[in-house]
Automatic annotation (TrEMBL):
Gene designation per UniProt: dapA
Keywords linked to the UniProt accession: Amino-acid biosynthesis, Cytoplasm, Diaminopimelate biosynthesis, Lyase, Lysine biosynthesis, Schiff base
Cell location: Cytoplasm
Oligomeric form and interacting partners: Homotetramer; dimer of dimers.
SMART domains: DHDPS
Catalytic activity: L-aspartate 4-semialdehyde + pyruvate = (2S,4S)-4-hydroxy-2,3,4,5-tetrahydrodipicolinate + H2O + H(+)
Name of protein: 4-hydroxy-tetrahydrodipicolinate synthase
NCBIfam families found in the cross-reference section: dapA (TIGR00674)
GO CC, one annotated term: cytosol
């Protein structure tokens, strides 16, 4: 089975001034994330990539472009989940054809299926592809939560190989404690990443790794290497950035803050698509201060 590594970046989608995908900026971003921020895998067209406002044609072009540009330097995980099982199967097959190494499948949102409906949704997608699939449970966005019991049931399907878990540390613990060998739990929350790994998560699917990925890799390596105090110190140093990029105390939707933070570092990714809007002057100043302490 594919090893996606411990530090995975949920990558932003660069846009130009007309709001179209900026392919030149994307090419540079991929190099930067791999070479400077030590991303071991990239998620393409996830929430951070503004998947709700990307067309299917844009997503499929993104899959192929990122696979070609990465050229085996890291693994590519395509965000192909939706609240429409047939649509997810269509995108998953397109991702496989484009050469992606795996897919990320979010819990169906808005229509709020029950646990059996979720099970059959993910089972159907997994059965449509030979690619390894990572589940994505993020109740704050979807309005529904995949239980630990259903996750563990899905873990018995051979090509469902992990979950990105954002529900709670208790759920991370329960899944990690009972999952079959080879099924990996990833934290989907930067601020909870190290605590999640301490209770059994394998790694982090991160937003902050766009700007502090090298430091996060050091933190993860310290923990895995048995240096828990060093890892804790690094986590404490990074914690204001983890929280601040999600707008504490100014609530900002992902990826508004991280795109602005990248621009501050000279990494051109452009702004966001409506209905997201750029940070206000006060919010921009707050983000600047995160990196000048």
């Amino acid at each position: 089975m594919v090893n996606f590594g411990r530090l995975i970046t949920a990558m932003v989608t660069p846009f130009d001034q007309q709001g179209e995908i900026d392919w030149t900026a994307l090419s540079s971003l991929i190099d930067y994330l791999i070479e400077e921020q030590h991303s071991e895998s990239l998620v393409v067209s996830g929430t951070t990539g503004e998947s709700p406002t990307l067309s299917d044609d844009e997503k499929i072009k993104l899959f192929a472009f990122v696979v070609e540009k990465a050229a085996g330097r890291c693994k590519i995980i395509a965000g192909t989940g939706s609240n429409n099982t047939r649509h997810s199967i269509h995108l998953t097959r397109a991702a496989e054809q484009a050469g992606a190494d795996g897919v990320l499948l979010v819990v169906p949102y808005y229509n709020k299926p029950n646990q059996e409906g979720m099970y059959q949704h993910f089972e159907s997608i997994a059965n449509s592809t030979s690619l390894p699939a990572i589940l994505y449970n993020v109740p704050s966005r979807t309005g529904a939560s995949l239980t630990a019991e259903t996750t563990l049931r899905l873990a018995q399907i051979p090509n469902i190989v992990g979950t990105k878990e954002c529900a709670s540390l208790a759920q991370v613990t329960q899944i990690a404690a009972s999952a079959p060998e080879g099924f990996l739990v990833y934290s989907g929350d930067d601020a909870s990443g190290l605590p999640a790994m301490a209770v059994g998560a394998y790694g982090i699917i991160s937003v902050a790794s766009h700007v502090v990925g090298a430091e996060m890799k050091q933190m993860i390596d310290s923990l895995v290497g048995g240096h828990s105090q060093e890892a804790a110190k690094l986590h404490q140093q990074l914690f204001p950035i983890f929280k601040g990029l999600f707008g504490c105390p100014h609530p900002l939707p992902n990826p508004v803050a991280v795109k602005y933070a990248l621009e501050l570092r000279g990494i051109k990714v452009g702004s966001v698509r409506l209905p997201l809007i750029p940070p206000t002057e006060d919010e921009a100043e707050f983000i600047k201060k995160l990196f000048t302490r």
